[in-house]
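for the writeup, i need someone to sanity check this before i put it in the appendix. the sequnce is what the collaborator sent (i think, or maybe the updated version? ugh). structure was predicted straight from it, no edits. if anything looks off just tell me and ill rerun, i have time this weekend
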Amino acid sequence: MRIVLCFLATFITTLSFGQTTDEQQILAIETQITKLSQAGKFKDLAALFEKVCREDFMIINHTGQSADKSTFLAQVDRERTPDQYFETFQKEDKVQLFKNGDNVVAAVVIGKRTVRIKAEAQAGLVPFKDQVIKYYIKQGGSWKAVNQIRLELDADQPMNVIKADSGNNPKKK
């Protein structure tokens, strides 16, 4: 019931920002993922991923290792021990939609996270920043995740986006 209320609150909130229905649907999924992660409800998170990931879903993590859907779901379900929890969790998502004619058929979500995990066994905070790129397709009227790539960023550095035309592209020099 609580998940449904969170979903409805997110859906109603996003209506006021002029986003398309497709953007709202994808951001609602991403918001659910964030809320379940923050709350440490990893069994619920695994159930959500089971629902929104296609059977051929693949993930590549920050070390370059890949996992299929069943391996990924098992990792999510056992990811944290009871002595680990998020002290801070900030996330920002941007959605890019792709059309075939007038129909939206695919989307890419680029998310940036800044997280500090409290781990009692490690006697301190474990900070990290990462960027998650997730690919969705619209299938039977529902959004399904196809792939996810996670890139770990330096936790001590601010997250900056370098634009291709900013003069910071070494190949242009």
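The first strand starts at residue 53 and ends at 60. The chain has four helices and six strands.
thx in advance!!
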